[in-house]
Every structure is written in C-alpha cells, then in structure tokens.
Specification:
Radius of gyration: 26 Å
Shape: rod-shaped
Helix content: 10-25%
Number of domains: 2
Distance between the termini: 57 Å
Number of helices: 1
Structural class: mainly beta
C-alpha cells in the first residue's frame, strides 16, 4: 500500500514538473522605463502616472475589448476587466407523449427552449502602449472601456 502511494505521488510530481516546463511563463512586459505590465497588473516604479492601453480577449467568443488602466506612481495597479455576457440559443426540448381522450397518444413536436446567458471571462491580455498622463480622468485605476 505504501509503495503504491509513493509511486502515485512520484508520477503526480513528474506530471506537475512537465506541466510547469511546458506552461507559458509569465514575463513582465516593459512598456516604458520603470513601467512594466504582467498579466492583469502593472508595476510603476516612476514618479509619473501612466495611461496603459491594453486589449483583452474574452472566452466564449465574446471577442476583444479595449481596456485603459491608470498606473499610479510607485505602485502596482490591477488591470480591471469586465467581459460581456453572451446569449446562446436554447436547446431542443422533447416532450413526453400526451394521452388522447379517446385513447392512444399524441407525440408533440420538440420545441426550442429559452435562450441562455453565459458568463465570459478574460483569457488573454495584450498590453499595447503606455503614455505619461499625470492628470488622469475620474478613474485613477484600471477600467474596462
């Protein structure tokens, strides 16, 4: 029993190691001297506020949305993203046979069910540019749109 457990843990460790090697490594992208963005955050080591333009790809075919983030001086600012919901057609619904008053059964035709709303989420982000903006508009942190 102990040998099987040890063997199973060894195999699991090997699989995790291979997955770690094959997984893409997150690398900070320097957009300006002292400003770098990695995944959904931007680190600003300068005394200026930067306006960072990014594009987010959402799951479920919801498309790409532009995102503007204001990276404040000497902080790490999250990139806030809100992917839209998508509506998908309803599924075909089959109905049970209905007993006729005189005997026998009617088979009602299938109907389409109601449409469904699916939530989407960010799957990829591309930080495209950054400009110094020391007079940001009303939203000093990340915002979608």
């Amino acid at each position: 029993m102990r040998q099987r457990l040890t063997s199973g843990l060894g195999v699991a460790s090997a699989v995790m190691a291979v997955a770690g090697v094959l997984a893409p490594q997150a690398v900070a992208q320097e957009l300006a001297p002292g400003l770098s963005c990695e995944q959904f955050s931007c680190r600003n080591d300068t005394d200026d506020t930067y306006r960072v333009a990014s594009v987010v790809t959402c799951s479920g075919g919801a498309g790409q949305i532009p995102v503007v983030t204001y990276a404040l001086p000497r902080t790490t600012t999250p990139v806030l993203v809100g992917c839209p919901h998508v509506t998908v057609p309803g599924k075909l619904e089959h109905h049970p046979p209905v007993l006729k008053p005189g005997g026998g059964y009617d088979n009602p035709p299938p109907t389409m069910g109601p449409p469904e709303v699916e939530f989407t989420y960010p799957v990829l982000i591309e930080h495209r540019s950054a400009e110094v903006d020391n007079n940001p508009r009303s939203q000093p942190t990340g915002s979608a749109g």
